[in-house]
Structure formats: C-alpha cells, structure tokens
Amino acid sequence: MSRITLADYFAGYVGHPGISADHRASAEMLLVQVNKLLASLVESGAADLDINPITGTLIAGEKNGGWRPAVCLTGSAHSSHKEGRGVDIYDADGDLDNAITDPLLERFGLYREHPAQTRGWLHLTNRAPRSGRRTFYA
C-alpha cells in the first residue's frame, strides 16, 4: 500500500454526522498532495512506507490520525485534522521524517510538525502554520 485513500482518512469515524462535504473536499485535496509526496519518496528510494499494524493503513494512531470531529479531545480545537487538512502518517523508524526537507514540502504544498514532536509518526498538513515555516513546532 503506497497511498492513503479517503476511506483510510475517515476510517476512525465512519458514518459520523460531522463529516461534511467541505471536509471530504479538503481531505481529497490534502491526500492528493500527500500521496504525491509519498510516491516521490518511495520512487527515489529515500524512504519506505510502513503499514500501521493497528489501522492496517499508512495512517498513524488508533483512530485519530486522519479526520477528527470537532468534539474530539485529541489535538487543539482548531486542529487541521478537524478541517480535513491534516494527517498523521505511521513512521515507526523515522524514515519519512529523515527523508523530508523543507524544499520537498514546498514542492508539494505541504507543512509538517517538527519531528522532535512526532516520534513514530509524521504530521502533514496543507494549512500553513502561523510561522509560515514548512517544518514547524506546534
């Protein structure tokens, strides 16, 4: 499996009434960007993708690595996950974080939470943080 599907992204909350058409559209755009980045890393040999043994997908965590409802206590009230614009990718050995650079993130229109804050996973978003930095501290 070398890509994240919409089904993967919303799997933690299948059928949740809070999933809007806007969330789906935002998630679809995000996943196009993320999947292109992941494909680039794999094709270049810079990183391998790991399947999360809990979710059976590239999504990290148990259920909150993709979309989260507004009432979810994981993350901030304004988390990019709650807008369909953030995803946590399983990265047990840090290969992805080690292979990603700010120019690569810029090429795909993405930002990531600093690896020091995301051991075991990689947080990607297409929503710029206040700092504007491609790699940021939350």
Polypeptide structure, described:
The chain is α+β, with helices and mostly antiparallel strands and 138 residues long. It has a single domain, classed as Muramoyl-pentapeptide Carboxypeptidase, domain 2, CATH 3.30.1380. It has a 4-stranded mixed sheet. A hairpin with a 6-residue loop joins β2 and β3. The radius of gyration is 14 Å and the shape is globular.
Quick summary of this structure?
The protein contains four helices and four strands; from the N terminus they run H-H-E-H-H-E-E-E. The mean pLDDT is 96.
Counting DSSP E segments of at least 2 residues, the number of strands comes to 4
CATH architecture title = 2-Layer Sandwich
How is the CATH topology named? Muramoyl-pentapeptide Carboxypeptidase, domain 2
List SSEs in N-to-C order.
HHEHHEEE
**Distance between the terminal alpha carbons, to the nearest Å?**
29 Å
Mean pLDDT across every amino acid position: 96
Kindly estimate the percentage of residues that lie in beta strands according to DSSP: 5-15%
What would you call the structural class?
A: alpha+beta
Unreliable segments (pLDDT under 50, ≥5 consecutive)?
Answer: none
What's the helical proportion of residues?
Answer: 25-40%
Shape: globular
Q: Specify the biggest β-sheet.
A: 4 strands, mixed
Oligomer: single chain
Number of domains: 1
Order of strands side by side in the largest beta sheet? 1-3-2-4
The value of Rg in angstroms is 14 Å
Total number of helices: 4
CATH class: Alpha Beta
